[in-house]
Design goal:
Elements: H1 2-33, H2 43-52, H3 64-83, H4 99-119, H5 123-151, H6 159-168, H7 176-192, H8 211-214, H9 220-245, H10 256-282, H11 292-313
Length: about 325
């Protein structure tokens, strides 16, 4: 019990400290490839500290949604980090990191963002929420199917057990089922976190906004919770993906030596994956809105094929 709580605390603290650095590395990588200097890898830290130091301004007549939705997003992101095996595969016995529990927590933050966009009463907010939920309707089933395909050889849907089993058996990694599932998972992670080519996190053009449209009416500390909560979701999903693809280095228990190795390995893997993602974004353009469902439907097909193929391979 104590060891599980230690691992959960390590996961949360690790992600909270790493996330601004991850965003800084991604922004700096993209800026350098575009020929810009950029704000530096510590700029996200400065942005968050500035936002948390400001009082939120809320429009007269706004309801509790404007107040509680940012906190709900932040809370769901922290719970997600506690359940996803970022550093160690030691599970929390009382709240297992089951696939269906993790997807439910992820959906909770998605709904909070959508309600926030509708609360503003503006055309932009409603448009962003509508697009956001349309993408979520395609993303969530794909996450379930892709990780379910990886869970079949293990015989459990607990994420920690899946990562641990993949680190011990190379045959579960180097096969068509794993490749199809991971490609599908990468696509939905890009969509869920609002990255190119699904969404452009650096634009405020009304015809292209999805995430930004839902948070236009938020400011100060509320905006800080929203931004940081969204960044934490990126860290959780990116960390889960890289640990499923490259599971080595993840600690099997709560021993401090293994945790130190897990912290170092996860830091390197997440930062490298974030840099690659940012570099790829430089060379691709945002898809037209009505082409995005085609991309997400393609990822769903890949996940479905991985599940079908798993019954033949395993």
């Amino acid at each position: 019990m104590i060891d599980s709580l230690v691992v959960v605390a390590v996961h949360v603290v690790f992600a909270v400290l790493l996330t601004p650095l991850l965003l800084g590395v991604m922004r700096t990588t993209r800026a350098r490839l575009e020929g810009h200097v950029g704000g530096g890898v510590l700029q996200p830290w400065r942005d968050v500290i500035k936002l948390f130091g400001k009082e939120p301004l809320r429009a007269p007549g706004s309801t509790w949604v404007l107040t509680w939705a940012p906190l709900l997003l932040m809370t769901s992101s922290l719970v997600l980090l506690a359940l996803v095996p970022l550093v160690s595969t030691l599970p929390l016995a009382q709240v297992p990191g089951d696939l269906f529990v993790v997807v439910s927590v992820l959906l909770l933050g998605t709904v909070a963002l959508a309600l926030l966009g509708l609360e503003s009463g503006s055309a932009f907010g409603g448009m962003g929420s509508s697009r956001h939920m349309m993408f979520a309707a395609l993303v969530e089933p794909t996450v379930l199917l892709s990780i379910y395909a990886l869970s079949l050889p293990v015989g459990t849907s607990a994420l920690a057990a899946i990562v641990a089993a993949r680190s011990e058996d190379l045959a579960t990694i180097a096969n068509p089922v794993s490749i199809l599932a991971l490609v599908a998972l990468v696509i939905v992670v890009i969509a869920e976190t609002g990255r190119l080519p699904v969404d452009n996190p650096s634009t405020h053009l009304e015809l292209t906004m999805v995430h930004e449209a839902m948070i236009l009416e938020s400011g100060g500390r509320d905006l800080g919770w929203l931004e940081f909560g969204s960044w934490l979701r990126l860290t959780a999903l990116l960390g889960l993906t890289v640990n499923l693809a490259v599971p080595w280095g993840v600690a099997p228990d709560a021993a401090w030596q293994n945790l130190a190795i897990g912290l170092a390995a996860s830091t390197v893997k997440i930062l490298v994956a974030g840099s690659i993602l940012a570099a790829v974004e430089v060379f691709i353009a945002k898809l037209r809105l009505f082409r995005v469902p085609e991309l997400l439907a393609g990822s769903f097909v890949l996940a479905f094929l991985s599940v079908s193929a798993s019954y033949l391979v395993f």
